[in-house]
């Protein structure tokens, strides 16, 4: 292959990354799809989340976890499964199973179950004994929106309790949490979340292209982005690098000498 | 694989199912995609419909039909192809071809062609000589909506004429038949269809997650759901089992002793 | 396989086509997905565009280009990459790389960079020395819409400058160029574009089914359609042939003798 190198592009972090992470949402991919997505784009994938409770039913789980290890991608259990387990008094069983199966990471959230902040931080500390913890802030229910102050405080507290990164809720649809129902961005919520821990500690769930482009324009190529479908990782990478109309940078225009 | 078993989940039927069926819509999948979808999710797939006229062009048809047989999934010819054949005076040719190729089942509908109810029931009886028949009720044209009484009557008559199940129209888009143009549910139509044959005899076309979740909340984990994309079968199964926020069951909360 | 032949269908061109082309948009497919899409549908695929700047990052590029050659499909570099290269003073480097890697075709557009019509035609003539050129008309920015007269003139001038076909902008989303923001068709723009070169020289970007169906009803089975996802090519072919409700032709009704 003749690797192209004729363009001036923004700086991008490389793996293992601490900033500029891409976090994939697996909604139940087949092993074959996971394998070919990793062959095509592993250098651009940092975290692979088994969305909500899909891991509980995924017959390809062992093979996928092995593929992820081989490609240097952090495997992460979805937060909803841990919430449901917690609600049934089975949080420890869930964590034990995740460890036995070989997950690197778990998401700790309180978007579904009636969990207090104290409960969440207890669970977060428990999980952080054996896993990289990604916490999540924001409800899946548009009627339970947090105030800006609550966003800032919960992000800060989650990090203090042991979260490596904090994910801001957007769901697979991109219509709650930091987004309005039409998918547009609640800028004051984004600002409040960033205030809680710094932009490098936030992973923004951003399933839609317009949301990804907005965040890249606001925070640069190395913003952390989450809930990306596996088959859209290369397209996202072009957005990060200004190789798509939505993030084209007119300041890089060539000027005759 | 360490199969997880720490959660209390709703009862689910198993194959071969008479209720709780999942009916997949194949819009022209490659053989490889079909194969890996079946490896990943065959225990959750009961019927596989080759949508509208795709079977007529599908070069992978023999391989797919063999895969479906091997995985215990009923293969079904799309109703639009039979309607077009009927409109051209070729219904018998279509059925003969479907039998020769090896279809188990055909859909009998009148959503496109100008077919009377009598014509439909004649075709249904003809088809039921050699196939499991899934009939469909509801027009693809939002301007030709049936009344509630018509829904009830047509469902009942289709079952009397030999249909094993009756599919309620929703299209791939989920915007006609039992749905409004915005995808929300016309509850009175759902009720009318159920009145015609009982909920176990109805398969609801439900391509959208919110529609699936509504029907599962209304009728339980074992509602029959149709027009599911192959790559979303595992996600649907998590919805049926309450492993996703949309169908989380707060009544299953653990209480300290 | 028992190839079905019982229906009367509209005439369709065959490869290599000069009309009725289907142009696929590759947004970063894996090699495996490209391979299986070509096995399933190569007779229906004429052009394969590596969308915007994805080719710059596509590690599977050499394998894909070889597959496309083997299946008789024209490989095409996305116009946005050439625009960005031009904006950085690297248009020649981009074309040299595309030739070295083995592209058959390049798209020449001015939807992103501040390129005058003269600049575009200069670039078009440069590119046409070594490539089949597909030019594109229409901005990606809804606020920069061309008048009908500008559409007609730019189409005619692009053809005169060496474009083999002219693509009308619609983006991946189908919401700009010849479409309104809600995806509906600006008929006066379609008419103006056709006036510039004749319908056989226009490729309409038509990512949505309703847009495809409209154009097929307006111009027939052999209208040129662009930006089709690889996995929807068979579905599009059923639309072209009247094998789906949206393009069902009631004039083909059988009449008893």
From TrEMBL, chains A, B, C:
Pfam families xref list: ComA (PF02679)
InterPro entries hit by this protein: Aldolase_TIM, ComA_synth, ComA_synth_sf
Family to which this protein belongs: Belongs to the phosphosulfolactate synthase family.
Protein name as catalogued: Phosphosulfolactate synthase
Organism annotation: Nocardioides agariphilus
